[in-house]
Amino acid sequence: MKEVYTLIKEQFDNIGIIGRIARYEDKAEYQSHYLGLVWEYLYPLIQIAIYWLVFGVGLKHGNATDGVSYLAWMVIGYTPWFYMNRATLDASKSIYQRVGMVSKMKFPVSVLPSIKIIGNLSSFWTMMTFSIVVGLLYGVHPTIYWVQWIYYFVAMIAWLIAFGIFNSTISVLVRDYHILLQSLMRMLFYMSGVLFNFQTDAFPAPFVRILELNPFFYIISGFRQSMVGHTGFWQQTTLNLVFWGMVLFFLLVGSHLHYKFRSKFVDLI
Questions:
Q1: What is the Cα–Cα distance from 254 to 262, expressed in whole angstroms?
Q2: CA distance readout (Å), 72 to 8, 171, 194
Q3: pTM of the model
Q4: How many angstroms separate the CA atoms of 258 and 265, rounded?
């Protein structure tokens, strides 16, 4: 637990640096493109249009899901997924991409994954606004349950930090791990309920119970429950315990491995 405390303390002590570097990297990434930062928002919108045409119009023929237009339902779930996918993959390679620079500065390596997590938030807020607008256009009205998206946002950030410190450390120790993680995230895209509603009678209950243990599924489902459902997060005691148990597990293991091998990162790379 001491390592977890040290990790969290380093994040808060360097929150200003994390924000400044995150903003700088956002601008630097797209500076050579004609549209610049517009691509950060245009790309997810193009993806949404493609998935809606294929799965919403093509396969579902525009049918509603949970009484809500498929487009609104899909966008609400795709928004946290798009952010989590990018933040997870970027955080996993953050240390071996920047450790050489950081080794020459008084700068804790543990904040590198957090820089990627914070850096991707700008597109998340834009997508979140877009999903709310789409929802309102398709008859999704604000309810008291909208407030609990704050809980799921905090849960999402906690999961990304825990998973990020674990992945970024393992990626340094085992360079093939990042490729494996990319494949895993592609599979989780279809298994996390982004495009399909697994919580129906069409799927076996044991299969759905297994899927619900997936932290990405938990967060995506939580955002949907907040926006279009009527289920409070406090009503899912078992799922809450499983999710936060996984956050704690990856935080404990990730922080332990990080501080154990941090002095050797430069040599390993």
A1: 11
A2: 36, 36, 12
A3: 0.87
A4: 9
- Maximum C-alpha span of the chain: 57
CB 48 within 8 A of CB 86: no
Distance CA 233, CA 169 (A): 32
Contact 194, 47 (CB under 8 A): no
SS3 125: helix
Quick one: DSSP state of residue 213?
T
In this structure, the number of other CB atoms found within 10 A of the CB of residue 9 comes to 12
Between 34 and 4, residue with greater pLDDT: 4
Burial of 179 from C-beta contacts in 10 A (0-12 / 13-18 / 19+): exposed
Q: Work out the burial of residue 6: count CB atoms within 10 Å of its CB; fewer than 13 is exposed, 13-18 middle, 19 or more buried.
A: middle
Q: Using the 8-state DSSP alphabet, how is residue 258 labeled?
A: H
pLDDT at residue 156 in the model: 97
Distance CA 257, CA 237 (A): 30
* Contact present, 109 and 95 (Cβ < 8 Å): yes
Q: What average pLDDT does the structure give for the chain?
A: 83
Closest CA to 93 of 4, 176, 158: 176
Nearest-Å Rg of the Cα atoms of the chain is: 19
118-175: pLDDT as tens digits: 988 888 888 888 888 888 888 888 889 899 999 999 999 999 999 999 999 999 888 8
